[in-house]
Each structure stands twice: as structure tokens, then as C-alpha cells.
Design brief:
cell cycle, 314 residues, single chain, alpha+beta, Transferase(Phosphotransferase), domain 1, 10 helices, 3-stranded antiparallel beta sheet, 2 domains, cell division, kinase, 5-stranded antiparallel beta sheet, 17% strand, globular, Kinase-like_dom_sf, Phosphorylase Kinase, domain 1
Length: 314
């Protein structure tokens, strides 16, 4: 827990909670955090309020909230959810976000997995563009998953929930390995590496790509760290020093891991053409430095027939 920076305190006087009208529809409710749909009485604009209860203000604001606020104030992009304002009153910190109709998980559930090739390409391209913007500004999201990708009624996809995001520097820094929801966690992180960079977001994006292509079914739905690794090994093969130099030195590497042979990705993700399989394979490389960058992925031939309006969005 850390205290609200002075520059944030001065910002919280811009709006008051009384300036918004709740419609009593709670989107998300956890022990300390609730999210509501509401609208501004001043502008009539529909927004989302993320309300964080501060049980003891002397302890300050959760560091995840401070991190999310600080980063979103810097990241202004069509594919990143917009933070309108921050309110601090009544033992609550309230973040005012632009409203999006649903997240990618709900979208996939509602369309019963029948997302359509061009829609999938649009969402993947927008995801990569948002990631590229973050990486250009030296930010790792670290928690990419369908639930953290918001979609509005215009079909615009936006990265959200930057509570685990981090600024990164050169050389690559050491971080905690407890990042990213298990199903979307890169194998280097699963094996205990604390030295990582932009490639962990690319792995997550690859898993999301496959999930869209598989009708909403996760590619690697592990129930534990070991099960997650085994599911990856059964598709990509068990890594060794030849294909991933240094893997046997990672903290969680076990010499007695089951030896699995790689299977063709096209036999697992069957609804994507050869260009899509090639892009997916480049996103799911074992060697972190060998994973394709977000910028390069956007230039992949898989997107050659992408709608001009999606590519032009900026």
C-alpha cells in the first residue's frame, strides 16, 4: 500500500461523485472493488466507475490502483481504455473510465465462438496495436487475457486493467514471476524467470489469438503451474538447450519433465489459414527473444486483407 501522490490529490478535485448518476447495475463486485455503469449529469456521457474501498486511509491507496492510474494518464491511444478522471472521497478511490459494452470473453460467449475470420483479424490487429503502443512507451501490461480486453459497439478493442503493468528499462530488469493469469502465462515466467520483457505480452496475445480461433476455448487451460507447463509441452514439445539455450538453468526447471514431441499447430488450431498458423507460431516461440514483436506482427501477411478502416484507426 502506498499513499496518493500529491499530483493525484490535486487532480481529484476536478469532479465529484455527485456529478454522476448510478443506474444500480454493477458490472463487477469484489471485496474491495466494484465497477458500475453510470452517466455524467453534466455531459450525459455513459462511463464506467471503478470504485476501490479504502478500509484505512492511513494505509494509503493500493499500489495496483496507483500503478494503473499513473500508467493510464500517460497512455492515450484508441486501443487503450481511456481514464477520464480520478475521484477521492468517502473512503473510496473512484476511477472514471470510458464505457465499453463488453469484454472479449463475454463477446466470445455470446456469439457461441462463431466470431468470423475478419472480426478475429480486426480484434487481433487492434490488440497488437495496443500492445505495440505500450511497448513503445516502455510499458509491459503483464496481465493480458480476454476479460481485460474491452469492446465497444463500434467494434473497437481496448486494453484495460493495468493494475499489474510495469514500466521497463534497458537492460532488461528482474521482476516478480507472479504475473499474468495462468492460462496466458509465458513458459519462461512459469519456469521462474524474473528477467523478462515485451515477449511475455506477445505470448499472452498468441494464446488469445488461438482462443478466438478455437471458438472461445482456451489453448492451454492449465489447473496449476505444472499442468500449465505440461499442456504447453504437449503441443510445442518439451524444450531443451538446443531450442531454448539456458532453459535448464531456470529456477523451476525439472530434469524429469516428461519428454513430449511437438505437434503441428495446425492440428490444434484448425480454423486458421497457413498465414495465421505462421503468425501464431512466431508468437508462441519458446525462446523469448525469438518471439515476434507487436510491430512486426502487425506487418505479417496474415493481415494483408484487413479492412482499411481498422488499419487506419489511430
Amino acid at each position: 500500500m502506498i499513499h496518493i501522490p500529491q499530483r493525484l490529490k490535486s487532480r481529484t478535485n476536478c469532479l465529484r461523485l455527485a456529478d454522476f448518476t448510478l443506474n444500480h447495475h454493477s458490472l463487477i463486485s469484489h471485496r474491495h472493488i466494484s465497477t458500475y455503469i453510470t452517466y455524467s449529469q453534466e455531459t450525459g456521457e455513459i462511463v464506467a466507475l471503478k470504485s476501490i474501498r479504502l478500509d484505512n486511509e492511513d494505509e494509503g491507496v493500493p499500489c495496483t490502483a496507483i500503478r494503473e492510474i499513473s500508467l493510464l494518464k500517460e497512455l492515450k491511444h484508441p486501443n487503450i481504455v481511456r481514464l477520464h478522471d480520478v475521484l477521492h472521497a468517502d473512503k473510496r478511490l473512484t476511477l472514471v473510465f470510458e464505457y465499453c459494452d463488453q469484454d472479449l470473453k463475454k463477446y466470445l460467449d455470446e456469439c457461441a465462438g462463431d466470431i468470423g475470420v475478419m472480426t478475429m483479424k480486426s480484434f487481433l490487429f487492434q490488440l497488437l496495436r495496443g500492445i505495440a503502443f505500450c511497448h513503445e512507451h516502455r510499458i509491459l501490461h503483464r496481465d493480458l487475457k480476454p476479460q481485460n480486453l474491452l469492446i465497444n459497439k463500434r467494434g473497437e478493442l481496448k486494453l484495460a486493467d493495468f493494475g499489474l503493468a510495469r514500466a521497463f528499462g534497458i537492460p532488461v530488469r528482474a521482476y516478480s514471476h507472479e504475473v499474468v493469469t495462468l492460462w496466458y502465462r509465458a513458459p519462461d515466467v512459469l519456469l521462474g524467470s524474473r528477467r523478462y520483457s515485451t515477449s511475455i505480452d506477445i505470448w499472452s496475445a498468441g494464446c488469445i489469438f488461438a482462443e478466438m480461433a478455437m471458438g472461445g476455448r482456451p489453448l492451454f487451460p492449465g489447473s496449476s503451474t505444472l499442468d500449465q507447463l505440461m499442456r504447453i509441452f504437449k503441443v510445442l514439445g518439451t524444450p531443451n538447450e538446443e531450442i531454448w539455450p539456458g532453459v535448464s538453468s531456470l529456477p523451476e526447471w525439472k530434469p524429469d519433465f516428461s519428454v513430449c514431441r511437438r505437434v503441428p499447430l495446425s492440428s490444434v488450431v484448425t480454423t486458421v489459414d497457413s498465414y495465421g498458423i505462421d503468425l501464431l507460431a512466431r508468437m508462441l516461440m519458446y525462446l523469448p527473444d525469438a518471439r515476434i514483436s507487436a510491430d512486426d506482427a502487425m506487418c505479417h501477411p496474415y493481415f494483408s486483407d484487413l479492412q482499411a478502416n481498422v488499419r487506419a484507426m489511430a
